[in-house]
Amino acid sequence: MRDIEVAELFAGVGGFRLGLDGYENIERPEFARPAAGPFKTVWANQWEPPGSDAKQFAWRCYEERFGAGGCVNRDINDVLNDYELGEIDIPNIDMVVGGFPCQDYSVARPLSQAGGIEGKKGVLWWDIYRFLHLKEPRYVLLENVDRLLKSPASQRGRDFAIMLSCFADLGYSVEWRVVNSAEYGAPQRRKRVYLYAEFTSSTWILEERLSKGVLARALPIQEPEGRISFEIPDDPYETTTSFNVGAKAKSPFLNAGVMQDCRVLTATVTQAYSGELRTLGDVILPEGEIPEDFYIPEDKLERWRYLKASKSEERVNKKTGFKYHYSEGSMAFPDLLENPSRTILTGEGGTGASRFKHVVNIGGRYRRLVPDELEQLQGFPKGWTDTGMTNGQRAFCMGNALVVQIPHEIGKVIAERHRER
Fold it and tell me: Which of 187, 206, 251, 342 could form a disulfide linkage to 156, CB 3.0–4.6 angstroms apart?
């Protein structure tokens, strides 16, 4: 079977590529990872605004790990403009993958008007839509925060419905699933929505696809509950103006679902995983590998304790003088080694006290997590981002990354079905 050739958008430090293609390099055997199947990433794009060289540390890591010239370091919108003008080439591909921000996807122009769909400028979803329109891959695998299913607050679920309308417009059928990586053996609780789309003329039986599709085979589930079916408009502009307008209820999109020809079936599912469960303690490095500046001085611990503790207090807005009551719950301090870690955020780096940074107590000393530990929480090899970045940049890259194991498992099923065809 020939390779499934892949384009990786918003590539970061290569999480999708590592999960699908695997990694073999005789110069770095410690980075070796198995491939999910006959995947071959042939084109990638990574650009970090505002475009200054100092901001391109993720791209430089990608290039160092996968080879120079393998990742285009330009704004994807400019790249696609040049492609349409015939000034550059983008190879034909079978699959597009990528993680992108959750934004306002509202549409400014209906399909019936000349030029078709027009969305807000600077919103990266429209670059994905445009890429799919231009290159027509058979498969699509995307990752986003689970908030996507219920945004915006004024029109719950509208943005995801717009995406589904766009996929339907291009002839794709879609599966989606909210996945907590810790429930499938990763040492980090990271909840993200994965969206698999396929360009197909086959009719899907939605009930069957929900419980036996690509995502359900890759990430086993119990019997779906609370099924809801409905239709979405076939024009993203109509979806923008009418979907769930005035609804005070929750988004109609539950944590799993399928869509074909604008028909939606969604349900609540729970995992049915029986493999090994890993914890934060599994990635903790020996004391001799921890730089001294990651340990928290005794005189700084009280500040960390305050930030992690529950609060119920009066505060004053420094600009307006307005007084208000602030409250929040407590967080574990230190983080428990016998549990999976909390979600890594981009602000994990730096020495300053923070409510959201991880802190562990090893041998009676409190410390932050080092980049090598953050990488392993995401499923990357230890040292993957050690390419000349600062520790803060390495932590930022991991906060932006995905858990490599998840696309790897999904990729194995895509490859199986591709082989069956």
Answer: 251
- Between the CA of residue 48 and those of 43, 173, 390, what are the distances in Å? 17, 31, 16
User: What secondary structure does DSSP assign to 10-58, as a single string?
Assistant: S-TTTHHHHHHH-B--TT-GGG-B--SSSEEEEEEB---TT--GGG-HH
Task: Give the pair of three-digit tokens for residue 158.
Answer: 């509208």
% of the chain surpassing 90 pLDDT: 85
Q: Is 102 annotated in the active site? A: yes
216 with 405: CB under 8 angstroms?
A: no
- Kindly write down the DSSP assignment for every residue of 349-385, as one continuous string: -SSS--SSS-EEEETTEEEEPPHHHHHHHTTPPTTTT
Distance separating alpha carbons of residues 329 and 344, to the nearest angstrom: 19
Report the Cα 241 to chain-centroid distance in Å: 27
10 Å CB burial of residue 105 (0-12, 13-18, 19+) is buried
For 100, the 3-state DSSP assignment is: coil
Q: Which of 102, 166, 262, 397 is catalytic?
A: 102
Can the peptide bond before residue 50 be classed as cis, meaning omega within 30 degrees of 0? yes
| Helix, strand or coil, per DSSP, at residue 79 | helix
Average pLDDT over residues 358-369: 97
Separation CA 278–CA 261 (nearest Å): 40
Amino acid (1-letter code) at residue 254: L
> 57-66 vs 391-400: helix axis angle to the nearest 10?
80
Place of tokens 């074909």: 260
**pLDDT exceeds cutoff 90 at 416:** yes
Residues 6+ apart with CB under 8 A from 281: 337, 338
Which of 69-78, 113-122, 170-179 has the least mean pLDDT? 113-122
Q: Which of 110-119, 195-204, 284-293 shows the lowest per-residue confidence on average (mean pLDDT)?
A: 110-119
8 A C-beta contact, residue 267 and residue 257: yes
Outline where 136-295 has alpha helix (H).
Answer: 158-170, 206-212, 214-218, 236-242
pLDDT in tens, 101-127: 877 888 877 877 766 777 777 689 999
Q: How far apart are CA 19 and CA 65, in angstroms?
A: 14
